[in-house]
Amino acid sequence: MEISETLAAGRAAQELRLRRGEFELATQLGHVRTVGGALSGRRRVARGEVERLRRAAGFPDALRERVRTVGTAEGADLMDISPGRFTRLARAGYLVPVRFYLNRYRAVVWLYLAEELRAFASGEPGLLRGRLPRTPTGGSGTTGEGAEEKAGEDCRPRNWRGRRIGLLLHESDDRWERAAIVGSVLDPLQLAELVPDPYERASLNRLRPDLAPGRPGSEAGREVVQRLLTADDPDEISWHRSSLTALLADARRDRQAPRPNDILPEPVGAPEPAPPLEPAPTPELAPPQPARTSVAEREAEPVPHGGRGRPLLTRLGIRRGRDREASAVSRGGGADG
To answer: Distance from first CA to last CA of the chain, Å, rounded?
Structure first.
């Protein structure tokens, strides 16, 4: 399909009268078909797809209702049950969240599709009243209303991760992208164990999707989100490891992970770099020489006492003394003769 026949995500959302979050969710759920790579961030919508949705009955309210999300309180009202029972159903895995965010207290707020909650309430009326049955994820066989809370188990993070990965896999046809999607929920140590080739790991990290856009700014908030993004249940980890192994085999058959061509290995036997030159020894300093002066300067400066000459005033005093002595001798000589 030509680029001229498609619309950018922002323009398509505007024409479909959807907010940004609603449009993203509509594309993830398949309500709005897009073209382009799942992880490229540049998915586009065909003009024909926009026109099809605009011609649908009830546009735009019907489309916006299909992507409307609610929290615990509003979801409990939709299902006509108490918020406490709603939370127990969600923790037990009967209700699967589609999104989450952190409130100002860094508490996780799960969001659910209103359309799915209404469908669950009409299809499972027995779970809305009375004692809850055994948890659908198995367990130790505990039954009763507190069965889903055994050992502090909460299925919401695991179910959200599984749903998010499934939606991303549905959008992508690239085999390395699909492997990166599954590997994104494994911790780095497990990823390094399954993918020992550093170039393959670099390729997976480069294609790694952002499972939860809009990370919090605080370090504590990022730690909370990171825990939700990482698989922690043994069964879940085993499932994703097996899936990643199979997807990597497909990706390797498709093409090799990119290698840098401009970095060559260092030749064998290359000479070692020369050691840094030591600074040359400092020669002994010669005794300071007197500064050269001009004749005028030498005549102007006083000669120190005890030097080769005498101070000017001293020389003048001696000369006057000698003149007086000579005058006295000459006068005395005249009297005797």
So the answer is: 148
Report which residue type is found at 266.
Answer: E
Residue 24, phi then psi, degrees to nearest 5: -60, -45
> DSSP per residue over 295-325, as a string?
HHHHHHSPPPTTSSS--HHHHHHHHHHHHHH
Note whether 32 and 53 are within 8 A (CB).
yes
Length of the chain: 337
**Alpha helices (H) along the chain:** 9-15, 20-28, 47-55, 61-66, 72-79, 83-91, 114-123, 156-171, 175-183, 188-194, 198-206, 219-229, 234-254, 295-300, 312-336
Distance in angstroms (rounded) separating the CA atoms of residues 59 and 45: 17
CA-CA distance, 289 to 305, in Å (whole number)? 21
Residue ranges of the chain with per-residue pLDDT less than 50: 1-3, 137-151, 262-277, 280, 282-283, 285-286, 291, 293-315, 329, 333-337
Residue type, 65: E
- Kind of pairing between the strands at 69-70 and 108-113: antiparallel
Pairwise CA distance, residues 119 & 142, whole Å: 27
Q: Tell me: cis bond preceding 283? Omega within 30 of 0 counts.
A: no
Query: Rounded to whole angstroms, how far apart are CA atoms 173 and 123?
Result: 34
> Which residues are CB-contacts of 288 (< 8 A; sequence separation ≥ 6)?
none
Per-residue pLDDT of 233-249, as tens digits, reads: 999 999 999 999 999 99
Q: What's the half-sphere exposure (Cβ side, CA atoms, 13 Å) at 139?
A: 21
Crossing angle for the helix pair 175-183 and 234-254, nearest 10 degrees? 160
- In tens, the pLDDT along 34-45 reads 887 555 556 789
Write the single-letter amino acid at 202: A
What 3-state class would DSSP assign to 20?
helix
Token code pair at residue 71: 């929290």
Would the pTM of this model clear 0.85, i.e. be above it?
no
